[in-house]
């Protein structure tokens, strides 16, 4: 019994010692593995100074180049609708024909009035000549003056009749309502047999010219002041009046035609703090329709600096641009850029970067300042995708494997 009491504590001591040795070995192994973990691979782009375009992406709406609400200028019944609704018409094409019987009759009456007035002129002229010969020798001065007045009145009657004839001709011609310019018609608001009145409030149809077409853009007054300062200082080169404008349509497709600046509103909205810019685009296939929402990329000029892809940059709490770089000893550091401009899918900065600096464009999400990394030379294509130029997996693919 005494021997059993001594044996049990001895076995417990041996077991505890064995557990202690096993735990220590595991901890040492983990520390060794942590020390041997390789640096995190990150994709980097070498910085190179150059002259790059300054761009602005602005929201906009399409508006017709010309718009006309077609209304009658004479009263009558609609006899014919000569166009297909929603179709293209040419300048001068007949749109509506108003019943013209009464206007034909008025024209005939006006022509008769002209003939009647012209018939009285010769006799009045002969009578005036006769009294002119007989004045002071059988005719008084009063007789001569009366003859003269009669002749002038006959001439005035002719002029009045001719003016009435011209009015009748115009009214008859106005029974044919024609397109004032090339365009696309809307739905007709009248039918054959409807009575219309001169200068009525309701339009018969609306005509819109869509080629070319206007794009109304909105820009903030703050950006306007910044750009004006950049141009005046010479930092930004180019003429903003010759700015190249490209469009992205509602479905994300890029419109093939380039536009040009047409005008800029010289006033700022008191409610929104923005001002209006109007651009002009060719629209030969009527792809852009009035009311469509578009995004316009306006190239304002060029500026010297370094491009930082938007995918590689973030904004801090103060709104300042920040990006991560790899130092000469392969350590990560964050740089802040208080001033930056938009250049396509990139930010353009002029300070805080030098030629040859290595910008982290992929893998920076999992690293902090001071971390040692393994830089992989890469480029960023036009779609913002990282393309590596040396052997090795992308940082975004390798980082999850290290978790």
TrEMBL record:
Any Pfam family the entry gives: RND-MFP_C
Subcellular location field: Cell envelope
Domain of life according to the entry: Bacteria
Leader sequence segment: 1-20
Residue ranges that the Swiss-Prot or TrEMBL entry lists as coiled coil: 107-178
Domain Multidrug resistance protein MdtA-like beta-barrel: from-to ranges: 212-301
UniProt xrefs under PROSITE patterns: PROKAR_LIPOPROTEIN
TM ranges: none
InterPro entries: MdtA-like_b-barrel, MdtA-like_BSH, MdtA-like_C, MdtA-like_HH, RND_pump_MFP
Start and end residues of each Multidrug resistance protein MdtA-like barrel-sandwich hybrid domain: 66-206
Keyword list, A-Z: Coiled coil, Signal
The Multidrug resistance protein MdtA-like C-terminal permuted SH3 domain, residue ranges: 307-365
Domain Multidrug resistance protein MdtA-like alpha-helical hairpin: 107-175
Main location: other
Family from the record: Belongs to the membrane fusion protein (MFP) (TC 8.A.1) family.
Protein's recorded name: Membrane fusion protein (Multidrug efflux system)
Origin species: Pseudorhizobium tarimense
